[in-house]
Fold this protein.
Amino acid sequence: MTTRSSLTVVLAAGEGTRMRSSLPKVLHPVAGESLLAHVLHAAPNGSGTRLAVVIGPDHAAVADEARRIRSDAETFVQRERLGTAHAVLAARTAIAQGTDDLLVAFGDTPLISAETFERMRAPLKNGAALTVLGFRAADPTGYGRLLMQGSKLVAIREQADATPEERKVTLCNAGVMAFDGKNALNILDKIGNANSKGEYYLVDAVTIARDMGLEAVVIETSEDEVRGINTKAQLAEAEAVMQARLRKAAMDAGVTLIAPETVYLSADTKFGKDVIIEPFVVIGPGVSIADGAVIHSFSHMVEASIGRSASVGPYARLRPGTSLGDGARIGNFVETKAAKLEAGVKVNHLSYIGDAEVGANSNIGAGTITCNYDGFSKHKTLIGEGAFVGTNSSLVAPVKIGAGAYIGSGSVITRDVPDDAMAIERSPQSIREGGATRYREAKTRGKKPKHKT
Ligand code: UD1
Ligand code: CA
């Protein structure tokens, strides 16, 4: 069996006016990843596949995102926004190179799956000229309606052009189409703009194919898979669908989510076995959590790797570049950034560890701060294996604390501390016998005490 080649054209030139945002619509995130990235991940990939993304003028950021996800993506600019068929033809040169299957997807339907693209390609193998993806909409308002005669698809009617009778149809156009490459350009070139909006509608491909004596078929899928995002409310609906999917996949893979509906995951979150996530945890992009780790409530993490049997939170914030070794412990109100904590490190309370490396089994006391920023640039703090940093210490970077070193609590460390050395750096304590009593008496008389407190 020879596999058919494919070209996927993703339409992403729209301004997304209804999002009321300065960010191009397809760059809005769902589960930590742009709408466009979700679609590109689902599109056919690998040998014999090509990808083209149609973007608007001034949308360099969209082109960058396309290439970040798929380095082989070609981008085409649609200068004027004259409709979905006009947008597909912006990629004419890619289409004209020839392909067995031409797939058209919208950059604003992020929940589409790879499996659906494959299902749509199957009828082409058997001679259909065109496959349309349909779904039963709970509320079809705004969608193109699929007009059937029996089991035959005869036309797609846009909301604005539909009669009241046609508007009652709930079988809708999802937007994804698959063309047999042989006829694709021929059909697309015949699409005109004689409709109420004066736009070149891709949906007209159906009637044109039929008039050419070719077959157009419908494949149905669930509404959740093809929700088109035009507004912020629809963005939130898609997020809810995606989160439900991700939580279920995590639980199916053995992750314990005590209150799944309160845990936010990213599309790229990676879990080992026997991970436990307590309620109210937010996991941003780029996080991996190894076997047996426990994430306690109210923790927030982005671009972090968490080692086996490590413990995080409650109330911990792991920022980009955090790596926790096996069995490491990050406790409440601890923030980490660009910090490599080796196995068994403990930072249990109220600390900031940034631009730092902490050797295995070191104990970082409550309130320890790596002072990484001098107002001009960032500097590194290096802490050796088995060091002990007493509570409320400031480690003024750049600074190196040797392996096994001991830092007395309340120290402000500005110079390197050798291995196994002890450093205590704080102002001497002043004691005035009876001073507290004199202070309270002065206060009762409404007078300030003579000496400073
Ligand atoms: C479109 C379909 C409708 C379908 C619905 C599903 C057409 C004419 N209508 O309507 O049948 O039910 O999607 O969500 O195809 N785009 C461009 N350039 C253009 C116009 C659009 O790139 O000139 C892109 C948009 O960025 C978007 C996609 O095409 O990603 C769809 O455009 P949109 O305006 O959202 O179409 P809908 O009105 O939702
Ligand atoms: Ca849309």
Observations:
- The mean pLDDT is 96.
